[in-house]
């Protein structure tokens, strides 16, 4: 199985799989953290480009969602804005240091969702699935940061092939596909300041939704006696931080 996130590296894995260059792959699994949470550009790419393109070449891409015990779908944004919640499941920045806090979003909405699907399709702790993860050579340091589920053995074909992110872009373009945008939740605190500025300029609806989310999280922080948290490392609300820093930002071409 391919752990498919809709970004550059995992799309490269999909291309390699259709070309028979990474062995037999049964399917790609896209764990959608929520249509209200994933960046809309990622959702569009997965549904309108990747899924039909892969299907034409015999590779199915399954879109998975987190289900509660009741069977209802839970999204990351819903969890973040749940009135009674006391947690901060995304890596919000601590107000004093700007360092990201602990996060549970990837584990709860990606890894466990994939693990649950694998278990439902015959995988067990004794008979695990091989899950291909799209870490490229320039982000090899991320390998040890991802905790696999109990139902998978992780492999990293891009590392084996010595492929960088730029190599992945070239592979995707050579296959006739548009290069996907960087995949992430639109409100991810790991977003670079230049990309926040680009969002404020080009996608103001997403920017101001994030500003409102940050405000809600800080209302929670005050209620439970927690230090204030922010989406950037600048120790101030997002609309103030980006407005103040924006004239000096290098928009460039982005990652």
Question: If you had to describe this structure to a student in words, what would you say it looks like?
Answer:
This protein is mainly alpha-helical and 255 residues long. Helix content is 40%, strand content 10%. The chain has nine helices and seven strands; from the N terminus they run βαβαβαβαββααααβα. The strands form three sheets. It has a three-stranded parallel β-sheet, with helices on both faces. Helix 1 (8-18) packs across helix 6 and helix 7 packs across helix 8. The radius of gyration is 19 Å and the shape is globular. The two termini are 26 Å apart.
Q: What is this structure, in a nutshell?
A:
With 255 residues, the protein is mostly helical. Helix content is 40%, strand content 10%.
Mean pLDDT score: 91
Strand order across the biggest sheet?
A: 1-2-3
Number of helices: 9
Per DSSP E runs of 2 or more residues, the count of β-strands stands at: 7
**How large, in whole angstroms, is the Cα Rg?**
19 Å
Secondary-structure element sequence? EHEHEHEHEEHHHHEH
Please bin the fraction of helical residues.
Answer: 40-55%
Largest sheet: 3 strands, parallel
Keywords:
10% strand; 40% helix; 255 residues; single chain
Q: Helix and strand layout, with pairings?
A:
Elements: E1 2-4, H1 8-18, E2 27-31, H2 40-56, E3 60-64, H3 76-80, E4 93-94, H4 105-120, E5 129-132, E6 152-155, H5 157-160, H6 165-174, H7 193-202, H8 204-224, E7 229-230, H9 238-245
Parallel strand pairs: 1-2, 2-3, 5-6
Antiparallel strand pairs: 4-7
